[in-house]
Automatic annotation (TrEMBL):
The protein's name: Energy transducer TonB
Any one biological process term the GO annotation gives: transmembrane transport
SUPFAM superfamilies: Histone H3 K4-specific methyltransferase SET7/9 N-terminal domain, TolA/TonB C-terminal domain
Keyword annotations: Signal
Pfam family, one: TonB_C
Occurrences of domain TonB C-terminal (ranges): 246-309
First and last residue of the signal peptide: 1-19
Length: 315
């Protein structure tokens, strides 16, 4: 008799879709948000090595439109959304941008960063934290854009800078300490936070409508209100295994979004097994309506998850 097994691992993943390719490797055109687009409107493209082979790890290479390598690493799933192992990122001028180690799609372990001119920027380590999206960064050494080392052996002035985000403050023994202030232009908010003994004591964010929100955790993952066990039981109980030929089974990989209201929307099959099982997986997951939404600095956000469901073949 067939059985249903649900992997207990949820992975936060970027929203990326994939196009068809006739070659053994798969090429995907991506826009500036890393979503699938056409060959006429892409900014990046991705090559998945040996896409049509069954492997434990798939080699994933992303490229700028110019053909310069942007990222190289490995993924447990052939869509590239389950990072595992060391990833190296590059600027379009060819200089190395960052080296980060991933475990279960989250940064974990030693990391390093460089500026676009090749100067060293950061030496640090990501510490696993189940409550956050990306773990906690422990800063060991840091150089500012003027090539001045402002953090030495975990102590000094540190800046977090990306295309839309900026924050600055002090670190002590590698962790944020005292007053930190910053802004996120993409999400449209400013914030002020106080840290003590390696922990966030309090924070307040102010959005573009001047609405302020107090928080004590920077990032909160979406979670089932009654716990993950309730969600797993729901899928196991409601999943009606269709009639399939003897010996047919395998894993169904799907992804979905938990929106700002905690609803599951846009479920999509990444890899299916056919025979009606894929459609049933979409139906069952969509029918669960008891998630608490994710938050960043007190602001509710949409998050994308992937979920494998394993169908045991009939003997």
């Amino acid at each position: 008799m067939k059985g249903l097994f649900i992997s207990l691992l949820f992975l936060l993943v970027p929203k990326v879709c994939f196009s068809q390719s006739a070659s053994i490797d798969r090429k995907v055109y991506l826009d500036s948000t890393w979503s699938e687009t056409t060959s006429e409107n892409y900014k990046y493209y991705r090559i998945v090595k040996d896409y049509y082979s069954e492997k434990d790890l798939y080699v994933i290479n992303d490229y700028y439109k110019s053909g310069v390598l942007q990222m190289e690493g490995t993924s447990k799933t052939k869509d590239g959304n389950s990072k595992e192992g060391e990833f190296t990122f590059y600027y379009e001028n060819g200089y190395k941008k960052a080296v980060t180690h991933y475990v279960k799609s989250s940064p974990n372990g030693k990391c390093a960063e460089w500026y676009e001119n090749g100067n060293k920027k950061l030496e640090g380590e990501y510490i696993e934290d189940e409550k956050t999206f990306f773990g906690t960064l422990k800063v060991v050494q840091f150089w500012n854009s003027k090539n001045e080392q402002t953090v030495i052996d975990g102590n000094g002035d540190y800046e977090e800078v990306s295309e839309f985000f900026f924050a600055s403050g002090k670190v002590k023994e590698g962790y944020k300490d005292g007053l930190w202030q910053g802004s996120d232009q993409k999400m449209g908010y400013t914030f002020s936070e106080n840290y003590e003994n390696q922990k966030l004591i309090s924070g307040v964010s102010v959005d573009s409508d001047k609405v302020s929100r107090n928080y004590k955790v920077v990032e909160i993952r979406p979670v089932p209100k009654k716990g993950y066990e309730d969600f797993y039981k729901h899928v196991s109980k409601k999943f009606k295994i269709p009639n399939m030929p003897k010996g047919v089974g395998g894993k169904i990989f799907l992804k979905f979004i938990v929106d700002k209201e905690g609803q599951i929307i846009n479920p999509e099959i990444i890899k299916g097994i056919g025979y009606g099982a894929d459609e049933e997986a979409l139906r069952v997951v969509s029918s669960y309506t008891n998630f608490a939404p994710g938050e960043i600095r007190g602001i509710k956000v949409r998050c994308t998850f992937s979920l494998p469901i394993a169908i045991q073949p009939m003997e």
